[in-house]
Amino acid sequence: MLIKSQKDFFAGLLFIAIGLGFAWGATDYELGSTARMGPGYFPMALGALLAALGAVIAFKALVIETADGEPVGRWAWRPLFFVTLANVLFGVLLGGAPWLGLPPMGLIAAVYTLVLVASLASRESRLKESLALATVLALGCWGAFVVGLKLPFQVWPAFISG
């Protein structure tokens, strides 16, 4: 069988894998019924919907000729590494790492680290633009989550806020 659009085919397979993963993870929770939904109902429905969407995309990639049907290129290791590292550091800075003796550093430090490390994924990023984006996102996260939703996030590191 000839794949007419490799990008769409592999994107469809990725959607199927992620959707099935969410649906499988939802089996740990009570599903309930349509009238009385349990905590696993929504992730199961979204996972199944994403897997179905992925199946449609993969099928279309096998049947319909597309303009961008060129093969998938090389792996972009630099963006993959820096975006993954940025997300891991965000989680560690926001929640702390007791096994490393690192206390939570707060929302502001986590957002700045996330943006600055993720900006290293592109050779075209500039420090001034990244700092401006980090400032806007940090203020937006603080305003939305701490002020607006009243979530109990530590905003600053303990050595600053006391």
TrEMBL record:
Source organism phylogeny: Bacteria, Pseudomonadati, Pseudomonadota, Betaproteobacteria, Burkholderiales
Domain of life: Bacteria
Pfam family, one: TctB
Keywords: Membrane, Transmembrane, Transmembrane helix
Organism: Ottowia cancrivicina
InterPro entries from the UniProt entry: DUF1468
Protein name in UniProt: Tripartite tricarboxylate transporter TctB family protein
Segments forming domain DUF1468: 10-153
Segments passing through the bilayer: 41-63, 75-94, 100-119, 131-153
